[in-house]
Specification:
Layout (H helix, E strand, L loop, with lengths): L9 H19 L3 H20 L5 H19 L4
Helix pairs in contact: 1-2, 1-3, 2-3
Length: 79
């Protein structure tokens, strides 16, 4: 099987999606900067998991990095 990236645990994947939905909801309410801050906080936690050696940490961090960039462009807020 080789160098496969480990799948995210279901709870980590669900938490990511919920955070992204919450960020979008904040943006709809005119608080895009708060939504971005939330996604950035998720990225920090993912980095902590990666640093702690969690096998899924790198993948989760990648998801958050993509989400932060996408959200910042979509809502014209600075990452």
């Amino acid at each position: 099987m080789g160098n496969q990236t480990p799948m995210l645990p279901p709870d980590k994947e669900a938490a990511f999606h919920l955070r992204l939905i919450d960020a979008e909801w904040l943006a709809v309410k005119g608080k895009a900067a708060d939504g971005l801050t939330s996604l950035q906080a998720g990225a920090v936690r993912a980095e902590e998991a990666r640093t702690a050696g969690e096998p899924w940490g790198e993948e989760l961090l990648s998801w958050y990095q993509v989400a932060v960039e996408w959200f910042a462009r979509r809502h014209r807020v600075r990452a």
